[in-house]
Design a protein that fits this description.
The structure holds 2 protein chains of 2 kinds.
Chain A lengths: L2 E12 L3 E12 L3 E5 L6 H8 L7 E6 L2 E2 L5 H9 L1 E4 L11 H6 L8 H6 L4 H13 L15 H13 L5 E5 L7 H18 L2 E6 L2 H7 L2 E6 L2 E6 L6 H8 L4 H12 L1
Parallel strand pairs in A: 3-8, 3-9, 6-7, 7-8
Antiparallel strand pairs in A: 1-2, 1-4, 4-5, 9-10
Chain B lengths: L2 H10 L15 H22 L8 H17 L8 H33 L6 H16 L2 H12 L3 H25 L3 H9 L4 H38 L5 H10 L4 H30 L2
Helix pairs in contact in B: 3-11, 4-7, 4-9, 5-7, 6-7, 7-9, 8-9, 9-10, 9-11, 10-11
Classes of the chains: A alpha/beta, B mainly alpha.
């Protein structure tokens, strides 16, 4: 398998003394489904945003698809970002616009400034958007305004917007943190099947350890801006959970014990 | 409640002198508020008590004013121009308001985007906000008179002066509407490789459209009343000039009444249109 993403000794410092990430290194293969777990404030979101350079790194290098992000100029960076789709906890859709308009926003990076401003999309792009919405079960909602959708539906629109970019990689920042268990399962199933069937690499930040364990090919545990675990879900033990979340994670360990028993 | 818990709560709770429980503890801000209210009350009483009517008898003056109002509003009459001439004059005033609002909105949109902190950098934003605060601090009439130095009293000075102040007002109003926008939406589009202008047109403006429309209509209403005043004060033409003539040249109370009705009708119409427009925008 070829390596798609290679993060080498990356550090990120906010201000003078807040170190969000310190000397983080890992690599992700093409088509892999990787979950990043860790307590709030551990640096998961920062890590994700360093990969598409929404946050610039203080130190280290990130290689994506044989290019080094730190050497790119603004224009090249825009090009890079079209190759990386992003999904957010709060969906981040333009609420007043329709579902299909929001989906097509994913194509803006490929367009000239004027064509993008005026919303001049090609017929193929529109057809692709509708195809994706049908795949995600949103056929009925194509012309609905996004503020009329439920949380789970909004997140599926978010996924469609990311997929229409034809990305090599999906970055998902807490995709199910604001959803109920049913919607969460549906979203995770979609992400997993997308990753499988389209061969898209996924890097997912998660709060739910049990979800991460059951869906991922690999788990990366982050704590205090450092990677404390990097391995397959089978290797995750109670001691490891404790090293990621600290000694107060007793409830989580109980849950983990129960799941392992099954 | 047992004795112990009563004793505990009495150490936390504060009581007034008559042993009732206070719900608003004494603090610096309530003290300042009370002092301010007391001073204002004293000043009000004092100013009414020491008011100097000079030679005017208060009650006779009051009766005269009411009689004047009665003449104006119960017997409106046009003496120096026809109904359609008056209508045309109101249209000119309306045109002045419309033009200056349009110019102001165009400038407001551009500089509003540049001065919104989430869309621009801090330096540019602060420079624009600072200069705009200065523009707004000077009243519209004064701007018109300032530009009258170069352009002479008349419609040109009125348009430039009113545009200036409208732009100042709308830049602030628009940029605050843009700043209300959810940061995440901008982030999402930036992360997909969209450029600044694409984000502005595709996300920022649609999201804040109802705010923009309401502020623009608000300014249109202000500009309409300013345009009436400009007709009188700066010779900008329109119904304001007719009113100025009727009041200080002909001393024609009936005509002033008629002109007031003209202005009132148009103001109400404007309000109705504005409300219709806003409901259309915020619906779908």
């Amino acid at each position: 398998m070829t390596t798609l993403l290679n993060v080498q000794h990356v550090s990120k410092q906010y201000g003078h003394d807040t170190l969000a990430l310190s000397d983080v290194s890992f690599s992700v293969n093409e088509g892999e489904f990787v979950s990043v777990i860790g307590p709030s404030g551990a640096g998961k979101s920062t890590l994700l945003r360093c990969i598409n350079q929404m946050v610039d790194t203080t130190d280290g290098e990130i290689h994506f698809d044989n290019a080094i992000l730190q050497q790119m100029n603004k224009r090249e960076l825009r090009g890079l970002r079209t190759n990386i789709g992003m999904i957010f906890q709060h969906y981040n859709l333009v609420e007043r616009l329709t579902v299909i308009e929001n989906v097509l926003h994913g194509r803006l990076g490929y367009k000239s400034t004027v064509a993008g401003m005026l919303g001049l999309y090609k017929e193929e792009e529109k057809e692709r958007g509708i195809e994706l919405l049908e795949m995600l079960g949103l056929r009925e909602q194509i012309y609905k305004r996004c503020d009329q959708l439920s949380g789970g539906q909004k997140q599926r629109v978010g996924i469609a917007r990311a997929l229409i970019q034809e990305p090599k990689m999906l970055l998902c920042d807490e995709p199910i943190a604001s959803l109920d268990p049913n919607a969460s399962k549906r979203i995770m199933d979609h992400l997993k099947s997308i990753s499988r069937s389209m061969g898209i690499t996924a890097l997912v930040n998660l709060h739910q350890v049990d979800v991460a364990l059951s869906y991922s090919d690999r788990i990366i545990g982050v704590s205090g801006g450092k990677i404390v675990f990097d391995g397959s879900p089978k290797e995750v033990t109670q001691e490891i959970i404790q090293s990621i979340y600290g000694s107060e994670a007793n409830d989580l360990m109980v849950k983990l014990g129960g799941q392992n028993a099954i | 409640m047992d004795a112990k818990s009563i004793q505990q709560s009495s150490t936390i709770l504060r009581h007034s002198k008559s042993n009732r429980i206070k719900i608003k503890p004494f603090s610096k801000s309530t003290f300042v508020l009370r002092i301010t209210l007391a001073i204002m009350a004293i000043l009000t009483v004092l100013s009414f008590a020491t008011i100097n009517f000079q030679t005017i008898d208060f009650w006779a003056g009051l009766v005269d004013t009411v009689t004047n109002f009665q003449t104006m509003f119960t017997t409106p009459q046009l003496n120096h121009f026809s109904f359609w001439e008056g209508f045309y004059a109101v249209l000119i005033t309306m045109g002045l308001a419309f033009l200056t609002t349009l110019f102001g909105a165009a400038l407001g949109l551009l500089f509003g985007l540049l001065s919104a902190e989430n869309l621009s950098n801090k330096r540019v934003s602060n420079v624009i906000k600072g200069s705009v605060a200065f523009i707004r601090a000077v009243p519209t009439v004064l701007w018109v008179l300032i530009f009258a130095v170069a352009a002479g009293l008349g419609s040109v000075a009125a348009v430039i002066g009113m545009t200036f102040h409208s732009a100042g007002y709308l830049i602030k109003a628009y940029s605050e509407s843009f700043e209300e926008l959810d940061e995440g939406v901008i982030e999402a589009l930036r992360a997909s490789g969209a450029s600044w202008w694409q984000i502005v047109v595709q996300a920022v403006i649609p999201s804040s459209l109802s705010y923009l429309v309401s502020w623009t209509f608000m300014r249109f209403e202000i500009n309409f009343s300013v345009a009436v005043a400009m007709g009188a004060a700066a010779g900008a033409g329109g119904i304001g000039y007719n009113m100025f003539m009727a009041s200080s040249f002909y001393f024609d109370l009936n005509e002033i009444g008629a002109i007031t009705y003209y202005i009132l009708t148009f103001a109400v119409l404007l309000e109705v249109i504005a409300i219709r427009f806003k409901t259309n925008i915020s619906g779908h």
